Amino acid sequence: MPDLAEIGVFGGSGFYEWFADGRSIDLETPYGSPSGSISVASIGGRRVAFMPRHGPSHRLPPHAVNYRANVWAMREVGVRRLLGPCAVGSLRPEIAPGLVVICDQFIDRTRARADTYYSGPEVVHISSADPYCPELRGLAAEVSSQQRLDFKPAGTVVVVQGPRFSTRAESQWFTRMGWHVVGMTQYPEVILARELEMCYLNISMVTDYDAGVIDRPEVTAVQAHDVMRVLAANIDRLQGLLSLLIPRIPISPGCSCQRSLEGARL
After folding, report:
1. Catalytic residue flag (residue 210)
2. Residue 2 is assigned to a structural domain of this protein
3. Does 264 map to a domain?
4. Which of 23, 26, 154, 249 is the most buried (most CB within 10 A)?
5. What is the pLDDT of residues 100-158, one digit of tens each?
6. Contacts of 26 (CB under 8 A, 6+ apart)
7. Helix %, strand %, coil % for the chain, to 5?
8. Is residue 243 part of a domain?
9. Chain mean pLDDT for the chain
10. How confident is residue 199, by pLDDT bands cut at 50, 70 and 90?
11. Contact call for residues 119 and 171 (beta carbons, < 8 A)
12. 85 near 203, Cβ under 8 Å?
């Protein structure tokens, strides 16, 4: 298949469609069906592929998303830079709903998710020391600052299995460990992109305080409808950030993400 796009975007919860005039592409992969069709359109002169991570009507909970098929399908249409916005809960009182966190690290607390393309006989030990593209993170911070968004230029997301939210005890543990936000979809998406030598950027939209955030007695346990309400109020800001960021992404990368397999094979 010829390269139809160079930049890909996975829409998270509440972000199910973007282009009104996009070309729709249906793909099957060696790993099964992706979450939905890929829509390709032009943004600022760049060809962009969009796919809703959970499907067009949020039919797939986080633990049931076929991450391998999704990332493979993006690479199949030519994507080399992958943007993965998602909804997260805050683990810190100072990280308020509506704030954007440009994550630089993750903690994996998922289980039994298919998280590699190399299950043998070819063996690859990919480095995940710095899983998020430093070039894309820097650009996202610049655009966020110019837009006067409330944002944090770095942070650690702990990825839980879902679909349930954390208990208060779990949430308090995450906070004591020094982590910043909690979500359900960053793993294994970011590592699969790395295995296919794609740059990956996370933009975490904070929708709520997690259940165990301390010293905030007025904060009640998160409910799904509260998450969707905050997402709906902020989706335009997120789309605006992406629309301004995408044209600024260099044609040639200034990072090493797209050489991540060098030295990884045994």
Report:
1. yes
2. no
3. no
4. 249
5. 999 999 999 999 999 999 998 999 999 999 999 999 999 999 999 999 999 999 999 99
6. 37, 38
7. 25, 25, 50
8. yes
9. 91
10. very high
11. no
12. yes
pTM over 0.85: yes
Q: Is 31 helix (H, G, I), strand (E, B) or coil?
A: coil
Catalytic one of 26, 210, 215, 236: 210
Q: What is the pLDDT of residues 33-52, one digit of tens each?
A: 999 999 999 999 999 999 99
Handedness of CA 205, 207, 212, 214 (dihedral sign): positive
**Number of domains, the chain:** 1
- 208 counts as catalytic: yes
The residue range of the domain holding 40 is 7-259
Kindly state whether residue 64 falls inside one of the protein's structural domains.
yes
Domain of 47, CATH number, reads 3.40.50.1580
Placement of tokens 């950027």 in the chain: 201
Residue 59, classified by CB atoms within 10 Å of its CB into exposed (0-12), middle (13-18) or buried (19+), is: exposed
Choosing from 208, 215, 226, 236, which is the catalytic residue?
A: 208
Q: How confident is the model at residue 225 (pLDDT cuts 50, 70, 90)?
A: low
